[in-house]
Amino acid sequence: MEKNKKRSNCPISCTLDILGDKWSLLIIRDMMFRQKSTYGEFLKSEEKIATNILASRLQNLEENELIKKSEHPESKAKVLYKLTQKAIDLLPVIVEIYFWADKYFDVPTDIKSMINDAKKGKEEFIKATTKHLKKQIAS
Hints:
By secondary structure, the protein is mostly helical.
């Protein structure tokens, strides 16, 4: 969806205009927690996103300033995608989604471990993860 096109001024509606499809948050998740940064890496995600959908979602996230493209240091044929501060600011929301999912779904062991770490000290977890993500966007 175009950056300035909104259905209403409701904050939830505005957010859903950017993140309300079934792929955009998964791309952000992969960047935050799985260190994915290239088109090919996103295609390898277990959810099996189609190439045309991936291209569209990456473009939307870039237009809405949640990610930015940069040159790949090893290949001119590849592009690196990095989170922006705007995307990193979604971390507390994503952590709460994980908490909710943990309450109602069977969560894989590796994710359960991360959720348990976050539950022990949510603010510290968010602060440490934010610091780590900011280092990634600075490089």
